[in-house]
Amino acid sequence: MTVKPTRRGLLKGTLGGTLTAALTGCRSEQARGELSQLTAPGEKIVDAIPVDVTVNRTATQIAAGPDTTALEAVRNQLGLTGTKLACGHGACGACTIQVDGKPVASCLLPATSLHRRRVTTVEGLATDLRGLHPVQRAFIGEDAMQCGYCTPGFVVEAAAFFDAWRAEHGKQPPSREVIADALSGHLCRCGAYTQIYAAIARACEGAYDNAGERGPRYDAREKVTGQAKYTVDVQLPNMVYGAIGRAHVAHATIRRIDWSRALKHPGVYAAVDLTMGVRTIRFAGQELVAIAAESEAIARHALTLVDYDLDVYTPIIGIEAGRTAKDHVYTSRATRKQAPNANEAPLLPLKWRGNLRGPFQLFSKSRGKARRAVTEAKDSGDAKRLAGGQFSTQTQCHSTLEPHACVADWRDDLLVVHLSTQGVHQAAEDIAKRFDLPAERVQVLAQHVGGGFGGKAVLSLELVAAVELSRQLGRPVRVVLDRHEELATGGNRPAQEIDLALAADTEGKFTGVQVKSFADAGVAVGSAPSILFRIMYAKTPKKLEDWDVVTHAAPGKPLRAPGGPPAFWALEQAVDELAHARSEDPIALRRRNDPNPARKELYTWAESLPLWRDRATSIAADSGRYRRGVGLAVGGWFYFVQPSARVQVDTTPGGFVVSTACQDIGNGSKSVLAQAVANVFGIDPGMVAIRVGDSKLVPGPMSAGSRTATTIGPAATQAAENLREELLEIAEAQLGYRGAQAIPGGLRHSAGETSWGEVLARAPRLTTIGRRKRDRKGYVFGIGGLAAGRYVSGSLQVSEVEVDTRLGTVRVLQSQVGLGVGKIFTPVLARSQATGGVIQGISYALYEERRLDPNTGAVLTGNLEDYRIAGLGDVGTIDIHFMQKGFENVTGGGVGLAELVKLAPAAALGNAVFHATGYRPRHLPLRPDRVLKGLRT
Amino acid sequence: MRPLTLIRPQQLDQVRKRVADDPGQRVIRAGGLDLLDQMKEGLLSPQELVELRYVSDTHGLAMRGIQQQEDQRWAIGALVTLSQVANFDGLPPAAKALREAAGSAATPGIRNTATVGGNLLQRPRCWYFRRADLQCLKKGGKACLAVSGENKYHAILGGGPSFIVHPSTLAVALTALGGVARVVGDGGTRELPMAELFVGPKQDPLREHSLAAGEVITQLLLPALTREHHSAYEVAKEKHSHDWPLAEAAVSVQLQAGKIAAATVVLGHVAPVPWKAAGAEQVLVGQPPSAELFAQAAQAATTGANPLKHNAYKVPLSQGLVRKALHRACNIPLPE
Predict the structure, then answer these.
(1) Over 80: is that where the pLDDT of B1 sits?
(2) Rounded to an integer, what is the distance from CA A680 to the centroid of its chain?
(3) What span, in angstroms and rounded, lies between the C-alpha atoms of A826 and A217?
(4) Pairing between β-strand A442-445 and β-strand A415-419 as defined by DSSP bridges
């Protein structure tokens, strides 16, 4: 039996899913002839023209080929890697540079057009005289970033806007609309828009003219100056470039793959087979071969010379086709085992019927009772006792702005892998297993990671390709996906169809919930949202069934709150529907049926909000073209910790060094660590240096499953507290401070007070390792170094929308979000992560949708124009309210919120659209065509 | 890989001859944005790029400026950027639709480098066309893949055999304003109305314009616009931030003695060419402007629409835009 290498079998899921399986090696071949030496990193220049240009106030010359972009010239020839490639088609703004003071998209700008121009990149915004540009200071001060990958583009454009605005308007603040228009060409996948607005407005007002250069985020300065190095920025001596050849069809069998023409092409060094012996193509974009060459352009060109001899068949595209097709994606028990896992939990054995797999019913509760309750409510004919129907949600892509990227360097003694990953420690373990190496011979590095959201949690084929090619060639190999590859295969949240019935008695007490959900995770299986129905309205009987429908599409992966947004889209609209049918306040109905203590507090808070309290009492109260409405939805999520994680704190004569093999994907791990240690010692976090992003450090957690802060925060605190005790002893015993006691910032002793800085300068170097203490009442379960906590967090979102009944557009005006997650470790960053999650939820609800051609299975939305992600002007204002109590039994007093915040947005908007218009949307996204149709029926 | 050469002539005639000699392999480059885009997508792999922006003869000057001619017509150079048009307040108020359109297309970062000529002659954004590995009608294949595929963004008017929508936002406004392209070719200079510049797929499914190889647009001319003329441009997009239009409308009306003496209503992103809505124009001409009249004209604007499976929503969308544009052009508040 052969095993498909991707995403299951080979790889551990984030919840300790299936174990790593040993695989046979890949077929590979090297080009004959000598390897040429590279003259310069990056693209080979064909027929280059010298271009004189002043870059960041220095006159220089670049060599521009006819198709060289300004972006390539700046990054590859001048080494200014702050300017980023993300979409490659002028839609995202990450590549923005200033030419003669005007912002331009450098990915579509011919480098030749820079002749005799003045270019400013993010590296050149600061000057010796003034230091950072006020906009850079403002981005730091307002924490207007998360992963930082889009930040240089935003900062460069915003700086140009600031300069022009100041010249014309002085310190008058620009409106939100003006800022949104000026920055309309930029996308931030993490959703830092709330803070970006604030940064630009406050900078224009003058608030940052003389401000400092430090802020709440540990690595903000690196990010706003373009100094932060991501995997895509790694340049190693002697490095070559790999590219992956993919299936252009969605369903075929492979007779033969012949790369001989490609290997003969000048500058091509080697090829490897990525099929791992699987002879069936099951989705467009499936990885088939990888080629290494002198430049990425040559590698990609060589891919067009690979001959594929295929038998092509009609693909099965979409849930309906999957259910009704006579053909099957997996035709045997053995091939079904190749199906990747779309989820985090281990796959349980389930029955297959053609393309259907299921039902998965484990999370039902009093199934018979639930079914009878629904039947009875139906039979009663009483509309006030039954709500629900069929809901559907689309496929959403992770589409991190830094694509999947890997630079592998296979040396005799050590395999060094620079990887854009959510888990350096986990990745190193998995790589060691995959390539049969002792653990100490693998090192994974990730200084900065441009977003993850679940898409970079397990190893994928860009890594296999880079490592195999590097092993072949004995040179470092870089493989980076382009945007089309990223959107086609980088990961997605499966589409869902959910049939939901919510039954209640005449008193408005829920009597049963019945859910049948079908997931289209393409070739993957295991999407199981039913657990989310189980944890909501926890006392209500439930009959829950999950089904997979396999189709010829790229495999789904966990995406921040897997299963959540579809489940809550259905459930929270059904609850709203029932409330309206009963002419009851939606909060009153929920409160009656919701035992969750975190949300109880949030209901009271929401009732006090003017936005909720003063909403129109009737449905569709406005009669004009633009109709406003207010909707409310709630969410609940588990929490996880990684007890196996460790945090090390070292002292140096100058301060503290905190290290752990975790990574900062924009979630703020570094800042959490710095803050935790600073809090223990009562010092400025500036005295704390952070080292993460290196698998050789003590084991750290994955950045997944909302576990990071609640794992490393308490572990760092414990390490720091132990260290403080040790320092006190040393102060007393060796340094001569009599009666030393710790006070914020230092020691109090018989002779007065001494700062920690002074103590450290005299003390010997110390090392402690902290771990996260077990929760007072233990965990629900623990597997594979991960534990599920006993408590369920709560969220509540109230949103106001405006529906344009002529154009069918839905605009979000404002959202108020309450979160019951206990103690907040770093408030500014927690707020940013919360607003970012809400923004991703709004983007999902209104715009995002992967579309496949129904006939060929080709990905049509392979760029950031056709795959729409919300921009600055699309999200409205967002306020976050933290309910900081109720988790006293949790070590550290608080739980994660990254996933929780993604649950309620879609349903809150759906309920608001209903409130505004009387139209109850059932399908996502809320596209104009759907809204117009809905309003007319 | 095939070698690629860059040529930078200083005379327009050199540019034209160079390309006319081997139009299959040589391509003219203005701003170069869509060209780079197409080359990245594998849609084009020319052997030679011939730069327009180094032309320094009289045509070169004409291509870079915005000026009023002696005959009172405004001439906008083909190499002028979209942001220059959007920010140029010397144009008469009656040309508002053009400035609004120029300021609405793409993103600020693109508008700072994209040229007027390039905007008019960019290739369609259709998601079948833009994928090199899908052999669609516009790339010499047998059928328009949108017909049986995902056609939400495709044509409701004038479609067949290809159902692309024309991608140029400026073309919609220029057509409404009665704009004319000044084209330099072998026979000298000629003026080409927008309706003749753009060709539909029935005429030629492989291209969207009628220029011969080696012909170059040097300027766009706006007719003399008086105080009687009024115009407006409206667009519907899914997103508020950068997005391609779902539908657009540009209108230009001439008001004389309280009545509409002449009217042009043009729809964008609903047809393979900028779509002149003759039905709406007939409703308007000779009538005093009013909300009722505009509502009727909006209804008539989509006469003949024949939507595909997923794009019928463009009908009410276009009507809503026409209505809004008429109200704004005539400065009559929308009653909604």
Answers:
(1) no
(2) 31
(3) 9
(4) parallel
What is residue A232's three-state secondary structure? helix
Distance CA B11, CA A203 (A): 47
Whole-number Cα distances in Å, B194 to A83, A633, B157, B160, B198: 39, 51, 17, 20, 6
Residue segments in chain A with a per-residue pLDDT below the cut of 50: 1-23, 34-45
Q: For residue A847, give the nearest of A905, A800, A784 by alpha carbon.
A: A905
Q: Please tell me the distance in Å from B310's CA to the nearest CA on chain A.
A: 8
Q: Cα B336 from chain centroid?
A: 30
- Which residues in chain A are contacts of B6 at CB distance < 8 A? 47, 49, 65-66, 112
* A619, burial (CB in 10 Å: exposed 0-12, middle 13-18, buried 19+): middle
Q: How far apart are CA A590 and CA A576, in angstroms?
A: 9
Pairing label, strands B259-268, B247-256: antiparallel
Judged by CB atoms within 8 Å, which residues 119-178 of B form the interface with A?
125, 127-128, 130-131, 133-134, 145, 148-150, 152
Which of A46, A98, A107, A109 to mutate against chain B (most B CBs within 10 Å)? Answer: A109
* CA trace torsion A566, A572, A578, A579 (10° rounding): -160
DSSP letter at A214 equals -
Q: A931 with A807: CB under 8 angstroms?
A: no
Q: Write down the ipTM of this complex.
A: 0.97
Q: For residue A774, what are the contacts with CB-CB under 8 A and spacing of at least 6? A: A643, A891
Helix A708-733 × helix A669-681 angle, to 10°: 30
- The Cα B39–Cα B123 span in angstroms is 12
The alpha carbon dihedral of B211, B216, B222, B224 has a sign of: negative
Count of residues for chain B?
336
In 3D space, the residue among A811, A782, A805, A787 whose CA is nearest the CA of residue A876 turns out to be: A811
What's chain A's length in residues? 937
Number of helices and strands (H, E) in chain A?
Answer: 25, 38
Contact call for residues A650 and A767 (beta carbons, < 8 A): yes
In the Cβ-directed half-sphere of A200, how many Cα atoms lie within 13 Å?
A: 30
Nearest-by-Cβ selection for A47 from B4, B134, B320: B4
Give the count of beta carbons closer than 10 Å to the beta carbon of residue A39. 8
Q: Which of B156, B146, B147, B155 is nearest to B303 (CA)?
A: B156
Asked if the Cβ–Cβ distance from A93 to B107 is below 8 Å, we say yes
Is residue A890 within 8 A of residue B261, CB to CB? The reply is: no
pTM exceeds 0.90: yes
DSSP A767: E
3-state secondary structure (DSSP) of residue A520: strand
Are residues A113 and B310, on separate chains, in Cβ contact within 8 Å? no
Closest Cα to residue B115, out of B126, B106, B125, B124? B106
Name the amino acid, one letter, at A151.
Answer: T
The predicted-structure confidence for B174-226, as pLDDT tens digits, reads as follows 999 999 999 999 999 999 999 999 999 999 999 999 999 999 999 999 999 99
As a whole number of Å, the CA-based R_g of chain A is: 28
User: Is residue B266 scored above 60 in pLDDT?
Assistant: yes
Provide the token pair at A129. 């005289």
CB atoms under 10 Å from CB of B233, counted, come to: 30
Structure tokens at B29: 């480059």
- Token pair in block for residue A696: 């050789």
Among candidates A103, A187, A854 on the partner chain, residue whose Cβ is nearest the Cβ of B112 = A103
Where would I find the beta strands (DSSP E) of chain B? 5-7, 26-29, 48-51, 66-68, 74-77, 180-185, 188-193, 216-222, 229-236, 247-256, 259-268, 275-276
Q: pLDDT at position A42, please?
A: 38
Q: What is the pLDDT of residue A33?
A: 55
Beta-carbon contacts of B230 under 8 Å, excluding residues fewer than 6 positions away, are: B93, B94, B96, B252, B253, B254, B255, B329, B330, B331
If you average pLDDT over every residue of chain A, what do you get?
94
| Candidate from A184, A852, A928 with C-beta closest to B242 | A184
